[in-house]
Amino acid sequence: MRWMILALALTGVAQAEDMPVFHLELKDGTLAPTRLVVPAGQRFKLVVKNSGKSAAEFESLPLRKEKVLAPGVESFVVFQGLSAGEYKFFDDFHPATARGVIVVK
Q: What is the CATH number of domain 2-104?
């Protein structure tokens, strides 16, 4: 039984490592990149880093995801397989200047 649990745990780790990883930098009202192209129907990880001097928040209303980051903090958000399309996101602390889109193909 213990062997089966260990095998299942290791399988989960291998699947997590196979997940594509994309990076987004938030910096005092700017985003880089402003356009992320990701594969449709595939789980992926978005690493979000606030390299600015003020708080930032990755937010996507259509995807129902948000992540608040203090200055200098890095975190991540995992997305389940998305349908093809475009999903807008923004920095909720700088909504007028920090806007982007996740393009799912």
A: 2.60.40.420
